[in-house]
């Protein structure tokens, strides 16, 4: 175990709010360093989950599944209280998932408020919707909600880190390492031939996107 822990200034974030929400309040972080990140020469993890694999790459291999953690003050908002929310946004690969799958999920949850919907989804959905103002506001929405439903992407991980296990949908082909066992993980769309081809295509498209991105 390290005596002191620093975040490399060479790390990339999607925005400054990521640092504020994830790292600024972390009591185990001792500061920022200009040195590159340090990785273990043997990053193999005994538990095949994303957080465990990340920890093992820094020399910490634990026998049980690790849940993500945040150290933000728990902020709630009356505007979000006593409501059910659903977020169907994603950036990374969530398996063979289509707009028709999103509509099928919304048909199952007609009374849920849709969070930050895309223009494409707004054209077809009948749900009421809401937009959050910031990442902290988004966290407040999750904290205040009666329930939170999302895809197997950032929203699901953030909710679990806030202590709010969620209902999480994913498509065929997504790696199980991204499915936190404390969440209720549900595959949508089946596993037929079309889904297998779609999963392969979307996986390759996501790999290309990552290879072209400076924020990986």
Task: Characterize the structure shown.
The chain is of the alpha/beta class and about 220 residues long. Helix content is about 30%, strand content about 15%. It has helices at about 15-25, 50-55, 100-110, 120-125, 135-145, 155-160, 195-210, and strands at about 5-10, 30-35, 85, 115, 130, 145-150, 165-170, 185. Strand 3, helix 3 (about 100-110) and strand 4 (about 115) form a beta-alpha-beta unit. Strands 5-4-3-6-7-8 form a six-stranded parallel β-sheet, with helices on one face. Strands 1-2 form a two-stranded parallel ribbon.
Brief rundown of the structure:
With 216 residues, the protein is of the alpha/beta class. Helix content is 32%, strand content 13%. The protein is built from seven helices and eight strands; from the N terminus they run E-H-E-H-E-H-E-H-E-H-E-H-E-E-H.
List keywords for this structure.
six-stranded parallel beta sheet, 8 strands, 7 helices, 216 residues, alpha/beta, two-stranded parallel sheet
Task: Give the topology, please.
Elements: E1 6-8, H1 16-24, E2 31-33, H2 50-56, E3 84-87, H3 99-108, E4 113-115, H4 119-124, E5 129-130, H5 135-144, E6 147-151, H6 154-161, E7 167-170, E8 184-187, H7 193-212
Parallel strand pairs: 1-2, 3-4, 3-6, 4-5, 6-7, 7-8
- The low-pLDDT segments are none
Gap from first CA to last CA: 26 Å
Give the helix level as a range of percent: 25-40%
Q: Rounded to an integer, what's the Rg over CA atoms?
A: 18 Å
DSSP helical segment count: 7
What is the chain-wise order of helices and strands?
EHEHEHEHEHEHEEH
Biggest β-sheet: strands ordered side by side in the sheet: 5-4-3-6-7-8
Largest sheet: 6 strands, parallel
Derived structural class? alpha/beta
**Shape assignment:** globular
Strand content: 5-15%
Give a count of the beta strands, DSSP E runs of length 2 or more: 8
Mean pLDDT: 91
């Amino acid at each position: 175990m390290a005596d002191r822990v620093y975040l490399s200034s060479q790390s990339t974030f999607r925005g400054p709010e990521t640092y504020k929400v994830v790292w600024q309040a972390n009591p185990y972080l001792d500061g920022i360093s200009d040195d590159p990140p340090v990785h273990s020469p043997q990053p193999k993890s005994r538990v095949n989950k994303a957080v465990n694999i990340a920890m093992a790459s820094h020399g910490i291999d634990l026998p049980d599944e690790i849940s993500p953690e945040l150290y933000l003050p728990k902020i709630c908002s009356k505007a979000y209280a006593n409501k059910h929310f659903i977020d169907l946004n994603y950036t990374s690969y969530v398996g063979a998932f289509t707009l028709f799958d999103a509509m099928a999920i919304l048909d199952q949850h007609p009374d849920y408020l849709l969070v930050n919907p895309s223009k494409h989804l707004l054209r077809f959905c009948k749900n009421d919707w809401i937009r959050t103002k910031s990442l902290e506001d988004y966290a407040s929405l999750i904290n205040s909600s009666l329930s939170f439903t999302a895809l197997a992407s950032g929203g699901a991980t953030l909710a679990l880190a806030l202590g709010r296990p969620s209902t999480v949908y994913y498509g065929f082909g997504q790696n199980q390492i991204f499915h936190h066992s404390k969440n209720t993980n549900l595959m949508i769309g089946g596993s037929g031939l079309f889904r297998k081809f779609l999963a392969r295509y979307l996986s390759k498209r996501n790999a290309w996107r990552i290879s072209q991105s400076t924020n990986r």
